[in-house]
Amino acid sequence: MQANLTNKAFLGSGVQCKVSRQQAPARRPMQIRAQEAAVILKTGEKNKVPVELEKGDLPLNTFNNKKPFKGKIVSVDRIVGPKATGETCHIVIETRGEIPYWEGQSYGVIPPGTKINSRGKEMPHGVRLYSIAASRYGDTFDGKTTSLCVRRAEYWDPEMNANDPAKKGICSNFLCDSKVGDEITMTGPTGKVLLLPEDPNAVIIMVATGTGIAPYRAFWRRFFLEDVPNYKFGGLAWLFMGVANSDAKLYDDELQMLVKEYPKQFRLDYALSREQKNKSGGKMYIQDKVEEYADEVFDLLDKGAVIYFCGLKGMMPGIQDMLQRVAGEKGMVWEEFLERMKKGGQWRVEVY
C-alpha cells in the first residue's frame, strides 16, 4: 500500500489482516535480547553507552529520498504468538552509526521496485515512515544498529478465502520477508512530537495500540537498561497497551522484567479486546483501560505529567470522548484543560 511522508506505515491502515499460515520464524534472537535485559536488571549494572551520542543538536532529515541511506538487515524476528491477529516482526538494521536519531523519532523506508502512477509513468515507490523501536544506542548499545517494529499488512479476500497478493502492503512485506544481509534504503530521521521531555524526573504516561508501542520501547530502554552519561531517570513511566489478545502482546518479556525490577517507576496495564471485558460488559478497548485509572491519570496530568499517544488513529476519538466525559464528571472544562496541556507540552499525539 502506498503511504506518503505524513503517514505511518506500521499496520497497513485500511486492510484486514489475517494470521499467516506459514511457520513462524524462530524467536531465539529476541529471547537472547530479553535474557540480556534480564541480566542488566538483576545485577543493576546497566550497559555503558558511547557518550558522543548525547552531544549535538536533534538530527533531522539527514537523509532523504534523493540522498538515501543504505543499511543492512541484521535480524528479522516474529514477536507474536500463533493466535495473534496478524504477524509483527522486530527488525534490527545495521547503520554503522551513520544515521543517528533520538528516542521518539522515525525513519523512512523506501521499498525496492517501482510502481505505475496515475499518469501511467513508472516511478520508484514512495517513503513509508516507521517509529524507531530502540534508543539511540540500538539493541546492541553501541549506536551501530537501529530497530523497527513492523506488522505485515495483508488483505484477506473472503471471496478468494485467501490473502490477495495484489493488495498486500509493499513495504511491510518487504521488511518482514527480509533476510540477514539484505540492503535497506532509508531516510530521516524525522519527528519532534514524541521526543522525551528534558526533565528526567517527569511522569511519562504512554498509550499505545499495536506497533504504536515502538517509540516507548526506545523510552524504557533509555530509562532502565542503559548507563547514559549525565542522565538518570527518576520519574514514573506508565504504559497502557492495547492489543487483541495475549498472543498479540509485543516485547512483553522486557516489560514484565521492568514491572518486577522497577515496581515504583514502571507500571503496565493491558487492554486485551478479545479477552477482557470493560465495566459495561463490552470489549476492553484502550480507552476503557485508561478510564479504570481515570482519577489517578487526571491527578498526574494536573501535576504536569506528559501523556503520549501512538498507534492507530481510530483510538483517539474514543479516548478523547472518555477523557471529556470524565473531566465533566469532575467539574472540569475539558477543552480548557486540554489546551493547557498542549501549551505545556504535556499532550503528544502521533497516530496513523
Structure overview:
It catalyses: 2 reduced [2Fe-2S]-[ferredoxin] + NADP(+) + H(+) = 2 oxidized [2Fe-2S]-[ferredoxin] + NADPH. Its main location: plastid. This protein folds into 2 domains: 28-190, Elongation Factor Tu (Ef-tu), domain 3 (Beta Barrel); 203-351, Rossmann fold. A 6-stranded antiparallel β-sheet has the order 7-4-11-2-3-8. A 5-stranded parallel β-sheet has the order 15-14-12-16-17, sandwiched between helices. The protein has a two-stranded parallel sheet with strand order 1-13. The relative contact order is 0.16. It starts with 27 loop residues before the first helix and ends with a strand. The protein has helices at residues 28-43, 170-176, 214-224, 252-261, 286-292, 294-302, 315-329, 334-343; strands at 47-48, 69-78, 88-94, 106-110, 114-116, 122-124, 128-131, 145-151, 156-157, 162-163, 183-190, 203-209, 226-227, 236-243, 266-272, 306-311, 347-351. It has 352 residues and is an alpha/beta fold. It is built from 8 helices and 17 strands.
Distance between the termini: 14 Å
CATH fold category name of the largest domain: Elongation Factor Tu (Ef-tu), domain 3
Give the SSE order as H and E letters.
HEEEEEEEEEEHEEHEEHEHHEHHE
In CATH, the architecture of the largest domain is Beta Barrel
Largest sheet: 6 strands, antiparallel
Label the structural class: alpha/beta
The fourth-level CATH homologous superfamily of the largest domain is: Translation factors
Count all strands and give the number: 17
Assembly form of the protein: single chain
Q: In which order are the strands of the major sheet placed? A: 7-4-11-2-3-8
Any idea what the radius of gyration is?
Answer: 20 Å
Large-scale geometry: globular
- The low-pLDDT segments are 1-28
The overall number of domains is 2
Instruction: Please state the average pLDDT score.
Output: 88
CATH class of the largest domain: Mainly Beta
Instruction: Determine the fraction of residues in helical runs and give it as a percent range.
Output: 10-25%
